[in-house]
Amino acid sequence: MTQGVNRQWRLAARPTGPVDERLFRWTEEPVPTLTTGGQLLLRNLYLSVDPTQRGWMAQDTYLPAVRIGDVMRSLAVARVEASTHPGFARGDLAQGLFGWQDYALVDATVPGAVTKLPPGMPITRSLSTLGLNGLTAYFGLLDVGRLVEGETVVVSAAAGATGSVAGQIARIKRCRVIGIAGGAEKCAWLIREAGFTAAIDYKSQDVRARLRELCPKGIDVYFDNVGGQILDAALATLAFRGRVVLCGTMAGYGATEPSCMFKNYTNLILQRGRMEGFVVLDYVARFGEAVKDLGAWLAAGQIKDQVDIQEGLENAPKALRRLFSGENRGKQLLKVADR
Ligand code: NAP
Questions:
Q1: Residues 149 and 223 reside in one and the same domain
Q2: What tens digit of pLDDT does each residue of 72-84 get?
Q3: Are 120 and 33 part of one and the same domain?
Q4: Ligand 1 atom 1, closest CA
């Protein structure tokens, strides 16, 4: 039986604007104990910090909203402390929605509740490039975007966890890749480290004008992580039969009003374009093929990834805010315990 305190962040209120620490409540409880067969007591090590968590706080999406008073939902990697499930032993590493807390008690007989980390899989990559971000980039670009070698690809939030991988896959597929990111430092990283053809700093440059300069034949695939005015600028530059991959709406998550009315929507019709949303969970059955390709590209040095590790469970709300202020440099993780 484990002694000690389980520190937790619980959802206190639904967001109507930007994410704020006051939306959460700090609680401390005894560490839970195993009560029946098939259970695991897990010690969280790293929490994945994801924009979708704001959606989970606000309303039902592709998952039900987190209930007020519940531990804030979060993907995590944890160490098995105790197990009454024959498939797991003390010391194993596992991934699942274990929440903003030190310890989680999980019923491992529920399908999908816990996945054991394959031996040798680095924890940070299992939550980023070899995890949901890499998988999102892979299926978004290749399946939804139906990328063809040699095309012109534009990616927004391009220096982030998902965007940076999407752009590098396009580069590997011999495409011209233009990244849109906030600030000179991120734009320089895209060109020097990630091998993008060009980068646009949306905070200091006219995105629409720059897209016209950089994509004289139009954009074949626009991988959209932000929505709003940047999406509208990309629509204005869409190539004939161009595809817009709707991955996320960073510009809209904290907005209280719709962030943009599309002025260039008609261009989708004129260019016989296609705009399609997706959720990476649609591709669960094919995750294996993506992990194989992503792993090979990482091993060959063809994909450079950045991980931004903040520390301390008490900093979970602050870590989430970093995604919306653009402070994160690549995948935002929160380390809550040593391995
Ligand atoms: P990330 O890109 O690592 O971090 C978010 C980035 O968004 C920030 O670094 C910031 O970069 C940018 N940003 C923040 N506010 C912005 C604004 N108002 N306008 C433009 N850019 C803004 O995060 P991520 O986890 O990889 O997620 C990226 C996107 O993918 C999100 O929209 C997320 O919801 C989506 N996603 C979708 C799926 C799916 O299944 N469809 C799965 C995973 C992620 P700058 O400094 O460059 O502004």
A1: yes
A2: 999 999 999 999 9
A3: yes
A4: 160
